[in-house]
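Example 909, ligand zinc ion.
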Amino acid sequence: MAELAAVVGIGQTRYKTRRTDVSIAGLLREAVDRALADADVTFDDIDAVIIGKAPDMFEGVVMPESYLADALGAMGKPMLRVHTAGSVGGSTAIVAASHVQSGTFKRVLTVTFEKQSESNAMWALSTPQPFSVHLNAGAGGYFAPIIREYIRRSGAPGDIGIKVAVKDRRHGARNPLAHLQLPDITEQEVRDSMMLWDPLRFLEACPSSDGACAMVIAAEDSITGSKPPAWIRGVAMRSEPTMYAGREEVNPQAGRDCAADVYAQAGITNPRKDLDCAEIYVPFSWYEPMWLENLGFAPEGEGWKLTQEGATSLDAGGDIPWNCSGGVLCSNPIGASGMIRFAEAARQVRGDAGAHQVEGARLAMGHAYGGGAQFFAMWIVGADKG
Amino acid sequence: MREIAVVAYSQSPCVADAGATNEVELIMPQLQAVYSQLGLASAQDVDFVCSGSCDYLQGAAFAFVAGVDALGAVPPIKESHVEMDAAWALYEAILKIRMGHADSALIYGFGKSSPGELPIVLSQRLDPYYLAPLWLDTVSLAALQARLLLEQGLLTEHDMAAVVARSRHNALANPLAQLAGEFSVEELLAEEHFVAPLRRADCSPVSDGAAAMVIATVEQARAWGAPYARITGIDHRIENHNPCLRDLTDSVSTRQAAAAAGVHRGPVDVAEVYAPFSHQEILLSRALELAPETLVNPGGGVLAGNLMMASGLARVGEVFRRIINGEAGRGVAHATSGPCLQHNLVAVLEGA
Amino acid sequence: MSEPQADVTVVKSPVYLKYRFTAGSAPARFLGRLKEGVLTGQRCPRCSNVYIPARGSCPACGVPTEKEVVLSDKGTVQSFTIVSIPIPGNPIEPPYIVANIVPDGANISFIHLLSECVNEEVHIGQRVQALWKPAAEWGYSMDNIRYFRPLDEPDVAVDRIGKLPVTGLES
Ligand SMILES: [Zn+2]
């Protein structure tokens, strides 16, 4: 019943710790102007604008889309603001796609961003609330115990996280937009980096970045631009509560259900075999093996084996490269991180991923998660309509 | 396009301070109320859930995440959230149903504004480089707008007081209202100015509370066997947030949304207009081109109680109630967001 | 004529907003007992699981939790991390252990500090007990518990973590 829709334009900023050379609006326009140019359209061709970001406290601006409407060419158009925690980049893309897939609009602009340097993200996440112990030492402090439990039950060797950290940084060195540029990083360097939240070391965690990512999504009869469109073959979102008795935190059911839903839409029965590559939200190294299992690329307890044998590495010629762009481990403008995954998946199937292109990629997955690994957003894009 | 209807609605009373009640405790009773209208057990019985709220109201990042604890989201559900009034969550849910990914949806909005100072909190919604550092609060901005209308002879303070008097009177029949009573225009005009030319009564109160709604395809609505009202049009448009860069005496975006939603394709029996300030009700009624016989805000509107982040959804809910009660055949609901009516949504509802 | 100005790259614009924070009715009942040195949970009327600290609903069922249950201050380590960076605004010196602890009688863990232990010997399934501050210092806060420390009891099997009754291992 859903109308066919495709990504026809993609624009990203260069990701960096601090972008003092642009305002928030300026940062967004950098990505938006590139996306419009990529689609060979102007604001006049856009029917609606869908914007997303993580908490407003990251910049200290309440509902910033109010102020940004003008700079995003939204005057006189519908504008929607999405916020679903860390998964927001992905869910914003999905909400934007629904504007077209519902048959309501022909062509929409979607953009997500974070300008963490405007405020203090660590502070924003750790606002001391009365009545609770102030133990919030960043997201790593929350996820490290879950990773420890994964290692216990899977029996994974201790260096798997290190391998992921090196692999994604080597991938990132192929991507000129990536924040961390570490082409010569070694396993020893990662091992020697400071242990922040045992078992997570400094170089196994994502950086904190300023940046924005934009896409133009169009209906089948409104395709523009000289590059091939990336057809949206499936979209899915799932949420579950942060904590409940018996919750499976290592392998969350919301992630498994979301993947099953999106695979069914795209006709995927074996993700490792059917997909050519994937851009998966991995902010801490160990989440690669954990998500390999959660998303059905490997049986439970065996995700780490794919990492170990190089299956997810472009450099090692793996059969299912993950995060060829360098992933969240290289660039993390929180609100945009999910959309970057979705956009990078689209770049792959458009054959437009530059030095990190997977040769002949036809079908790719974009993935984002947020909160206490409880909000999931995924899409599958293809070079073919399906 | 698939025909979609409102099938259930509930709103909490508007109170100045919900006291110790937290977000989950505010939301749950409204969810239970809409479930019971349809015989549902939990959010598991609808295909999609979407909510609207604003972190800064409560002063905590990810305040909306707590809302998920009210849903019974085990096994996991299809769920989304807008950092906007829940009227826009309704819009997102409608797209989801139109594209065939859902036949039904639960929408809720909640706000607990009492912990902070709402007009000051919302001053930080302005351009962070030029306007926000001036701490221009929402009441002062609305006062600028009222001044323009008065100076240009587009309305009088008497007109504004008449809006307030009617709101207070109508609210007497609305058990959920925060402010109600019989006041004459003269009595209201005798009050001193608060932020001139606005008097306190020209400004909506700040209320804590929540509202919830269930929408569905007409087929699903019939299967549930509950009375419903069809959403025959919905559209929303945004303008520049900077009050110096648009005509504050009109609401162009409301006119655009009304035209696109098809407001003028038939008579409007009732209109629920989200006007947080008395002069805005007059301005919006003109922008919506409402006929003199249209009943405007028969429950008192938001001047009688304003649930930030849920009032827009509540306008749609109020029109739904009037239609299924047989008081109206066709109605218009309006929601607004941003300084001086920056962003406006218009929906048209009609009887089954 | 004035000299050409350098680019403005930063404008400092501090934002101060004051909030009167409220915990919620259910958390308030929990905090009230905590001030008396008692850990309580709330039992879900539908699935019977016991939550601590309860927010007023069973997140799994979406129904209000109204019944208080007294819990033990003994518990089991569900998982943990050794943190080597300071907590903003907290005087604890790294490295310190932050653990997910399930108190006996509850079905869910909360996060607290684990101390008086050899960091390298802490493990999943380990038994621990709260060390309370002097009663005179008790307030409406989990800070009433200074930290948890190891207990000389046998480990709990992984599949039983989060399922012990309030009497702990004795049952
Ligand atoms: Zn339960």
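Summary: The two ends of chain B are 17 Å apart (CA to CA).
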